[in-house]
Prior knowledge:
With 439 residues, the chain is mainly alpha-helical.
Amino acid sequence: MWAKINQFPLFHLIRHKSIQNFIFLIIIQASNVLISLISMPLLVTSLGVDQFGLVNLALSIIILANILVGFGYNLSAPREVALLHRDKKALSFVFSRVISGKFSMALLAAILIIIGVFGFGLFQEYQLILVYSLLLLFSEATLPLWFFQGMEKMKLVSISNVFSKLLYLLGLVLFIHRPDQAKWVNFLLGSTGLAINILLLVYIHISLKIFFQYPKIGQIWKSLLDNFQFFLSNLASHISTNGGLIILSFFAAAETLGMFSLAERISMVLRLIPSLIIQAIFPNTSRLFQSDKPRFYRFLRRVYRWTLVLGIIGSMTVFALAPYIIHLLARSTFEESVQYMRILAFIPFFACLNIPNVMIILVKGQKNLMFRSSWLMALYMVPACWVLTHIYGGMGLCFGLLSTEIAVLLICTFINFMKNKLEISTFWKLKGNLIESEA
Length: 439
């Protein structure tokens, strides 16, 4: 009977490591989303819309700083681990180098924020909230998601993430009841994540026989230099996709920030779909591109078709159910948030359209092209969103963010046709004689 079950195509599909990677990444993000959805009504009720907006603004600053902490390792480290997964000595070196590099960047980011708060008096309205949020930097530094992703063993890290988020939710229920407790919200998120991450690092050492070796400063410096373009690319991408709330803070009151945060969170959840798919298939596509290009193109086309289906279904669902979603999250009707959400709902679909462009650049290791496209995207987003927000407020920002996704799609397509014409033409079957026809 088991042999018959093995013959079902769906069973083979589920057993594919890239599919499993995607499923476990979805579990991680789904737990984040679910806890976020559960916590939002609690926080809005306990803190009020204004303090809720400030907590999210502080979180936006920390997430931006986490780009410095990650320093592009989310793009380079999984590929290294995937290619060296059978060599324990080499893996130990990579593991030690990445952890040391990320921790150094977390320390640097924390120092810069503290200097900004106490030395220059920045972030006036939410200084205390931001300082208590610094623990999130070290939670990011110790998160070994990149390692499990490269090893294509995502089960444990996904379960651990769910557990840490449940601890965070329990902390909110037990300790957050008044507006003056807003400073503890992000602190709880960081402390629960850090505790679980330390346990994961212990597991990697004991069970997988990966040893931490104190790398030399020169090795860490070289690692950072090698990832510098990936870091700049991640920074630009983050500014373009997540900088809207920061731009809005220059033109709107805390209450409006809270309204926009409600809508943006749902949009950003769906925006994760293309990012998660890229992360999930990256190790496998890297190997296929080197060893079997026809299979690479067939695999990427199948992934692309299903991603577009998921993207349009998600966008249309959010557009239709926006009033009910806002009411569920805030336990009140905020028409302004509903209008924001209906515009932002289509951002994920346009992001899905860009998956082939991004994958071709990544598998070819073209850090310079990733850097170029990301910064062209940021150079469009910041002035466009700034002007539209200044003139039209939150609605202008929504249209600015939507137009940014269209702009980056055009930018990446143009760059690929200029620099990777063979690969992009083959993917779209503009040169059908270059590869085998699909089965």
